[in-house]
Amino acid sequence: MSEVLARYDLDRVTIATLASHSSLQIFHGAKLEGFKTVAIVPRDRLWFYEQFRHLIDHFVVLNNWRELCNPEVVGRLHSLNAVLVPHGSYVEYVGLDCAEGIEVPIFGLRRLFRVEGDQWAKMDLLRRAGIPIPRLFSVGDDVDGPVIVKLPGAKGGRGYFIARSGEEVVRGVEERVREGLVKTPKDAIVQEYLIGVPIYIHYFHSPVLGRVEILGADIRYETNIDGLRRLTPDVIVELGLKPTFVVVGNIPLVLRESLLPKVLDYGIKFTEETRRALPPGIIGPFSLEGVIDDEANIRIFEFSGRIVAGTNLYVYGSPYSYLYWSEPMSMGRRIAREVRMAIEKDSLERVVT
Ligand code: AMP
User: Fold this and answer.
1) Residues 174, 185 contacting (CB under 8 angstroms)
2) Model confidence over 221-238: pLDDT tens digits?
3) Which of 159, 223, 226, 241 makes an SS bond possible with 181, Cβ 3.0 to 4.6 Å?
4) What residues line ligand 1, using a CB cutoff of 6 Å?
């Protein structure tokens, strides 16, 4: 990206993102830090984002997301001196090849997108980082105890299921292959189902300050798993109800302070492993998703190398971001602050790939 950056006017850098997911938070934060913003938006959503003109300076209108990598669009982003912020929907919308290959500076680690698309590589990265993970199985393996079967690229947990034996796993996956939810059984990953409470931790790695910050945490509200507790077990059994994991929204979470050292240690380990395996390593927001048991063990079953939607809870800052910054600091604003600090130190190349 250094060639592209060399042509940028660093006094006129803009913050661009796809108009979806956490974009309003990203635009809002960028404005607070004094940047002009660019919404990349499909034509049919334009009317909605036009309601937020006070947050958006430029619209790049597409007929569909896949046009992002068209040379005219990339040229327009260059002319706007845009730094592109990838969020949780970025790869899903534009496809992996465009997401990874786009010739626009990305705030974040673009090499991580491919790892994120491969459930096994993802878990391997966590393991190598020294972060505890659940036991993993393949479809067809003998399985003892409850497991959760996950389908790749599943939107918001759709099609996931819990099984108690190897045969149940195979039967469930075959059903989902027939329904077209997954291409081949090989694509599913089977994890030990962790018992405890799920937590979703929002981190930020700052190459400029050389530190990892815990910026927030949330609980995902998922249907129907979170609704089942409103029924007694006998009713669940009688009705033959099976848990599903479709995300509906997010609920704020403040952790016991005694858990924070471990939580931060995992964030630092993750950062270090990405630096070792995928230099220059993670830049900016990432999230670890895990389950805490009653002995305060935390095992991580998933990560995201980008801003997660749970950060939308904290547009005004979180109890943690306030401890670092003593001012309202959303993840969106934190991204813009990092870009601003990097520009001031004449080292924008340290925070983009
Ligand atoms: P994921 O797509 O990995 O974020 O998983 C979707 C949801 O499934 C999570 O938010 C959890 O509620 C649940 N889940 C995923 N993996 C596990 C696991 N290994 N143990 C328990 N629950 C899990």
Assistant:
1) yes
2) 999 999 999 999 999 999
3) 159
4) 134, 148, 150, 157, 160, 191, 193-194, 198, 220, 222, 245, 289, 291, 301-302
